[in-house]
Amino acid sequence: AQSVTQPDIHITVSEGASLELRCNYSYGATPYLFWYVQSPGQGLQLLLKYFSGDTLVQGIKGFEAEFKRSQSSFNLRKPSVHWSDAAEYFCAVVLSGGYQKVTFGTGTKLQVIP
Amino acid sequence: KAGVTQTPRYLIKTRGQQVTLSCSPISGHRSVSWYQQTPGQGLQFLFEYFSETQRNKGNFPGRFSGRQFSNSRSEMNVSTLELGDSALYLCASSADIYEEQYFGPGTRLTVT
């Protein structure tokens, strides 16, 4: 069965430090990949997505993610974290072909300290 | 363009009761998905509707059901509520399942 793993439940970084959130998936083929952010009291918002092509994708709010087929990973990065980035981040995957469902990871909660 | 709306925003029900939640997608979106969000479990997929047809269903008991109307508005129903059904229920709409999903604010259901 398809699965998405976000191994880090909680991450704390200092403001201005770099950030990397991990996401691994288990599928036979390359899926469609997404990162969403859920800020406190707000709905989920798409940060970026990967369908095909360049494996480094740019998103909103200065985030980027790199698809690595050999590692079945789609890690989210940001070079310099801002206090407003404190939120919960979800990786999501959809298989291609047919009627598929979106599978979300369990999320990584990011805390930013001054 | 108006966003995804969900009603009601908050609900308190008693065990054994049933509940109906409503979702109005973004205009033009034909795909509506429902998720259950609980702490530590992330978002658990309930079902997805496209043009009034259920295309996919998650691993939830038959007490959870849904439907979609011709105007793409969707409802989900939970019968015989259990304490474990307490959660945030999120609705998301998209042009299709492979496209960006736009989420509503959710309905917070508390079962006592």
Question: What are its keywords?
Answer:
heterodimer; A: 114 residues; mainly beta; six-stranded mixed β-sheet; four-stranded antiparallel β-sheet; 0% helix; globular; B: 112 residues; seven-stranded mixed β-sheet
Polypeptide structure, described:
- Chain A is mostly beta strands and 114 residues long.
- Chain A contains no helices and twelve strands.
- Chain A has strands at residues 3-5, 10-14, 19-21, 24-26, 32-38, 44-50, 56-58, 64-68, 73-78, 87-94, 102-104, 108-113.
- Chain A is globular, with a radius of gyration of 14 Å.
- Chain A starts with a strand and ends with a strand.
- In chain B, 0% of the residues lie in helices and 54% in strands.
- Chain B has no helices and eleven strands.
- Chain B is globular and about 35 Å long.
- The mean pLDDT of chain B is 95.
- The interface between A and B is medium-sized, with 23 and 23 residues.
